[in-house]
Recover the amino acids of this structure.
């Protein structure tokens, strides 16, 4: 029995004869009693025969002044179960037999409600039902309809919700190109259904078959539909701008470039700094954010660093093309037509001398071909296609650094272009994608890095040979496990041959 507590407070104000002080006195009186209010009777009792020996019960929740604790389920006047749910599956029943059910609710004080309205139901006959046709509202077999179908799809998941006019169990299978890939089955019978299918491929259309079962193994309703998973989000940055030029004028610095040919290219952002190359699109003053190919920066200083970032319609940002404007007194005119020799540029705050050329693995990727940059041979590329310069993240120290790729034009008078290598979205490499170059020929490439923790720098250099019809430098890289798989296969065959010879000798 639950007892309730009622507290009544009296506040008395006592005053002395001299009215010099006051005192508050609180008197609390407690009155106790019992909870004698029963819950309301359960309503809307529905009974559904699921098989020759199973009946499903569902009802609406009761209410109580304190709280409903649970429900008693009654069959033919005898209590058969206690549950905290508003559903119950009665099993082990006789075939083709009628039963009468009702439900009562009870609270923690032991108060029990009046019974629900009784429901009479008969278990199914062992003879399977036959189809009775269909209607525009859904597919009907033995009176079961599948309606209100809603499909929500992500890149690798489909969530299917629907309703049936009867309490049934359901199964949803999905297939691709005529092959069934899997089936999901519900637990228990209900009218509102939700089925989640995981592990799907992005941007793929699947055929879904929804089956409803009023009797196990016998389909009481079926509906087929198609659903496509969502496309993977675009996380590939566009190529950098090409042919970036900067000229100091009396009005400022005139910058020009060529936008990349990516179909989803949207605009460029030009960022300026007087300290070093801006490392991202907000690392400095933004002087241009549009789709044009030139801008005049009215800013004048001894040395100015610019980075130009390409941005696509999905908001992906390129690694950045960089350029530096020196004080006019420091600029040296190029007087030779010979290809310029790449030199390592050391920031003024770096006190240590440049390191020798190290063994950092720098790779050049174009299409399906990947070549390692080195001094022993040149890398052949298609001049009409973009290519990517990348270094595996595992080869790069974890602390702060800047990696810059400098591409020297075959014509020494045409200068050079610089590009930042930024970490890829999956974190596997540092990369810069360079758009198609307008001129074929032999380009010097220098990849250099600035280690701001040790104040040191280093570089790897090589030659890129661009032409309209290049000869691949090396075949596409073989996965590291391919060679070992071949060795294992040869070893397995050798063992089998030896085993057969031993067995033949034993005979």
């Amino acid at each position: 029995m639950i007892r309730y507590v009622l507290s009544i407070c009296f506040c008395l104000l006592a005053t002395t004869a001299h009215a010099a002080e006051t005192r508050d006195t609180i008197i609390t009186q407690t009155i106790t009693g019992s909870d004698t209010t029963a819950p309301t009777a359960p309503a809307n009792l529905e009974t559904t025969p699921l098989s020759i020996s199973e009946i499903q019960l569902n009802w609406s929740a009761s209410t109580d002044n304190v709280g409903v604790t649970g429900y008693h389920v009654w069959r033919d006047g005898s209590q058969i179960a206690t549950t905290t749910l508003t559903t119950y599956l009665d099993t082990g029943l006789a075939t083709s037999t009628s039963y009468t059910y009702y439900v009562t609710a009870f609270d923690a004080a032991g108060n029990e409600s009046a019974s629900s309205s009784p429901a009479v139901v008969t278990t199914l006959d062992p003879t399977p039902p036959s189809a009775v046709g269909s209607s525009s509202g859904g597919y009907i077999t033995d009176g079961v309809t599948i309606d209100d179908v809603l499909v929500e799809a992500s890149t690798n998941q489909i969530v299917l919700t629907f309703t049936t006019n009867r309490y049934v169990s359901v199964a949803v299978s999905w297939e691709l190109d005529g092959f069934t890939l899997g089936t999901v089955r519900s637990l228990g019978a209900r009218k509102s259904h939700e089925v989640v299918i995981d592990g799907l491929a992005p941007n793929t259309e699947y055929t879904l078959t929804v089956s409803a079962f009023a009797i196990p193994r016998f389909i009481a309703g079926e509906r087929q539909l198609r659903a496509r998973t969502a496309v993977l989000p675009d996380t590939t940055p566009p190529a950098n701008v090409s042919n970036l030029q900067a000229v100091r004028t009396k009005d400022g610095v005139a910058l020009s470039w060529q936008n990349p040919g990516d179909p989803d290219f949207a605009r460029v952002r030009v960022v300026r700094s007087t300290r070093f190359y801006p490392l991202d699109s907000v690392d400095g003053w933004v002087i241009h954010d549009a789709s044009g190919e030139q801008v005049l920066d009215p800013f004048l200083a001894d040395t100015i660093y610019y980075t130009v970032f390409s941005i696509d319609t999905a908001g992906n940002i390129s690694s950045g093309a960089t350029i530096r404007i020196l004080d006019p007194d420091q600029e040296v005119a190029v007087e030779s037509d010979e290809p310029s020799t790449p030199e390592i540029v050391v920031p003024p705050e770096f006190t240590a001398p440049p390191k020798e050329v190290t063994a950092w693995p720098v790779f050049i990727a174009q299409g399906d071909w990947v070549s390692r940059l080195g001094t022993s041979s040149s890398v052949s590329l298609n001049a009409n296609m973009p290519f990517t310069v990348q270094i595996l993240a595992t080869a790069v120290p974890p602390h702060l650094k800047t990696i810059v790729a400098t591409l020297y034009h075959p014509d020494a008078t045409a200068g050079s272009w610089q590009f930042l290598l930024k970490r890829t979205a999956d974190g596997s490499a540092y990369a810069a994608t360079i758009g198609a170059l307008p001129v074929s020929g032999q380009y010097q490439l220098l990849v250099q890095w600035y280690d701001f923790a040790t104040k040191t720098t280093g570089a790897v250099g090589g030659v890129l040979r661009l032409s309209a019809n290049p000869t691949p430098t090396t075949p596409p890289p073989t996965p590291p496990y391919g060679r070992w798989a071949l060795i294992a296969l040869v070893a397995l065959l050798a063992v089998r041959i030896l085993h057969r010879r031993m067995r033949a000798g034993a005979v």
User: Anything to note?
Assistant: Residues 185 and 439 are 62 Å apart (CA to CA).
